[in-house]
Design brief:
Blueprint (H helix, E strand, L loop, with lengths): L6 E4 L6 E9 L3 H8 E2 L10 E6 L10 E9 L2 E8 L1 H13 L7 H7 L2 H10 L5 H11 L2 H14 L3 H12 L2 H5 L5 E6 L6 H9 L17 E7 L2 E7 L9 H16 L2 E7 L6 H7 L6 E6 L7 H6 L8 E2 H4 L6 H4 L2 E4 L9 H11 L14 H15 L3 H12 L6
Parallel strand pairs: 7-9, 7-10, 10-11, 11-13
Antiparallel strand pairs: 1-2, 2-6, 3-4, 4-5, 5-6, 8-9, 12-13
Helix pairs in contact: 4-5, 6-7, 6-17, 7-16, 16-17
Length: 408
């Protein structure tokens, strides 16, 4: 028996709910919906929402059902109705009589763009509105359309524009990998510099034990927060110092590992002590994104120090301006932000500096953002093939990216 060209799919679970969603897909989708739908118009424009009444064809359900309808594509219409089982079954039966039988849900997902499906999968775990907005753009075709455009350029052997298009997409590869994996921020420094107090101030709650006894934190403590709309994890680590205590040594070793794995390290400096050899000892482990929190700045009193506290984040001083103990060019170039957990200048400048360090520019609405390592790998491979003047090989890489191969 041949499979009907136009079929019905149930997109919501087969359980009682407030709302149920059905989708009709195929060349006769619009015609079949309009056969039973009472609207003020007899046309369904794409991406426009309509409110109407569905008139069932059976005596058991003579009353009209209120529905919200949206034509989401040339051959696809979605209907949203009350989620009761009786109503859903009545509509499903009605569509079957119209020649649109209910199909398995997996048939619906097989029609969808793999990139849109991956974006939808990640959207389910999105923790902030900003992340959700980017993933919604990808669901609606931002990334797929950009890759298709690049493929057309490759077919035309327009390599300069194809490379530019790939560069624009890959600009956001690091951001794309952190849409659902938080950026890792590590606070590091000697004992009693105020790392735990800073962590609590950032989180806005007493999550880490604070005490004036050096070495209170023996292991790393991680908390999840949103910073300027981006998901980040803040890790408070054990104080860096020479110690004969085996447990403390293990804590310092674990702190070193967290620094190696981080996206940004904030070296916390006690303003009354300054930059030390302990800070410098971890510098080689740190990623390129590094900041110094000149902490307990409310305790400083000299005229120069007081004026330095008024520096705006846009004109950050570097460690060379703050400490004569910063010996190497690498140390001297680290930006410094005055902080205090108890008074002025607070921690706002530090939060701004961290956010600016991680994401200096946000993608525009509708920007193509690759959001999975496999997709990014395919696009990077395409760029290499373009630079090697092999457009056919680059085209295959783009096709692989469109299929979202290896995405889990």
């Amino acid at each position: 028996m041949p499979i009907p060209a136009t079929q019905l799919y149930r997109l919501t679970a087969e359980l009682p709910s407030a709302i149920a969603t059905l989708a009709v897909s195929g060349p006769e989708a619009v015609q079949r919906v309009l056969q039973r739908l009472e609207l003020r118009t007899q046309t369904l424009e794409i991406d426009k929402v309509y409110y109407g009444l569905w008139h069932a064809s059976t005596a058991e359900h003579s009353a009209a059902e209120q529905v919200v309808v949206c034509r989401t594509g040339p051959q696809t219409v979605e209907l949203h109705c009350h989620g009761g089982q009786a109503i859903c079954q009545a509509l499903i039966g009605d569509f079957a009589r119209l020649g649109c039988p209910l199909a398995e849900a997996r048939g619906w997902t097989s029609q969808a763009c793999p990139l849109a499906l991956e974006a939808e999968r990640q959207l389910l775990n999105a923790s902030t509105d900003k992340v959700a907005g980017i993933l919604l753009d990808q669901m609606q075709g931002a990334l797929a359309n950009s890759i298709r455009r690049t493929s057309r350029l490759l077919q035309q052997e327009n390599l300069p524009e194809a490379e530019q298009a790939l560069e624009e997409m890959l600009t956001w590869n690091e951001l794309g990998l952190h849409l659902n994996q938080p950026w890792r921020i590590v606070l590091a420094g000697p004992p009693n510099t105020g790392k735990s107090s800073l962590t609590n101030a950032i989180v806005g709650a007493q999550r880490v034990i604070v005490h004036d006894t050096p070495g209170t934190t023996r292991d790393w403590v991680e908390v999840q927060v949103a910073l300027d709309g981006w998901p980040v994890s803040i890790t408070d680590t054990a104080g860096i110092r020479d110690s004969a205590d085996d447990i403390e040594q293990q804590g310092i070793s674990r702190a070193a590992q967290r620094v190696r794995e981080s996206d940004c390290v904030v070296f916390v400096v006690d303003s009354q002590v300054g930059w030390t050899a302990a800070h410098a000892s971890f510098l080689a482990l740190a990623p390129p994104r590094r900041l110094v929190a000149w902490n307990k700045s409310d305790l400083q009193s000299t005229e120069r120090e007081s004026s330095d506290l008024q520096r705006a984040p846009a004109s950050l001083a570097t460690l060379a301006d703050w400490s004569a103990d910063a010996r190497t060019p690498e140390e001297r170039a680290i930006p410094v932000i005055p902080t205090s957990c108890l008074g002025e200048p607070g921690i706002g400048g530090l939060l701004d500096a961290i956010s600016q360090s991680l994401i200096p520019v946000s993608p525009r609405v509708g920007e193509a953002v690759p959001m999975h390592p496999a997709i990014i790998g395919s696009l990077e491979a395409a760029r290499l093939q373009v630079r090697a003047q092999t457009p056919s090989a680059a085209l295959k890489c783009c096709e692989r990216a469109l299929r979202a191969e290896a995405c889990e």
